[in-house]
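Hello forum,

I keep getting stuck at the same step: I have a sequence, I want structure tokens, and every attempt I make locally crashes halfway through. Rather than fight my setup again tonight, could one of you with a working pipeline run this one for me? It's a single chain of 334 residues.
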Amino acid sequence: MKLVTFVEPYYHQERIGIFEMGKRGSYVMDANHAFSLLLTQRGESYPQSIADQFIPPDMVQLLRLGKASMTALRETEKFALNKGPDLLESLDGGKVIFSSEKVKFKAPVPRPGKIIHTAGNFREHAKEGKTSGWEFPMPQWISFLKSPSAIVGHEDNIIRPRYTKKLDHEIELAIIIGKKSKHLTSRKSAWDAVAGFTVFNDITARDIQSEEMKNGLLNFGKNMDTFAPFGPCFVPKDDVGDVHNLKIECRVNGQKRQTSNTNRMSVSVAEIVQHYSWVTLYPGDILTTGTVSGVAAFRKNPEKYYLKPGDVLESEIENIGILRNHIVEDKEVY
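Reply #2:
Ran it on my machine without issues. Output:
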């Protein structure tokens, strides 16, 4: 099951959807409306009220509801696949099924409480930094916060700020928290706190980052507008397969830039969650694993590889999907 947050094309409302591939291409099913149809066929007296209770339009609210909502979503997906998209569309007058091309994808969790990034967990990235002459050490468990205001989703633009000429990509696996947690004492309890996963790209202005790190900071170089693209979907942990053996690939204009696998990570997902549970983790919070080798800054002749307006950035992780973004020039806003 792949869940998305999308804007439906008629009333332009934010909704929770289930992403599917059909014979005519990919489509998004409005999970709330489809569940209401299922309840109607079961003979429930107030199907829409029940659907609103179990599948709200906000992903954080849905995660807070826990297993009850996930059960409703799975029942809905099974019901929809049995009915077929054409029949669902006719039953609900076109309010359930939308072609992927006709909806706007938001980040799966558009408003997380916090985003905690970690670095150094893929030692290949630390090694390439040392080899390239990067002046700052990269031990494990470097952490920094990413601003929720920097979030963009699938097919959104990434703005190259006028203050940088060194815009870089860092593909990462992102962990979505599903349960309020603090001071987790075991890997099992940490894994229980995980709802699922998505694709993240930690966009970085290297020249700004370099100046900040001279003072021991990681702030604006990682947090300019649009520097937190993630999506296109949220895959529950039970559907992702072996999360510690997923292929990772970042492409620019179709050319491979970063290629790796989550099996090269030096710590587990559970260890990351447990480590950061010294602060309260809430449903919808995002934790990342750190990036893999192949960033522009650590290549020979890095100027050739920095992102520029017109570039198309694709970030792909096996069993999750492809996050696509477009690099544009900074413009004055009035």
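The chain has ten helices and 19 strands. If your local run keeps crashing, start a new thread with the error log.
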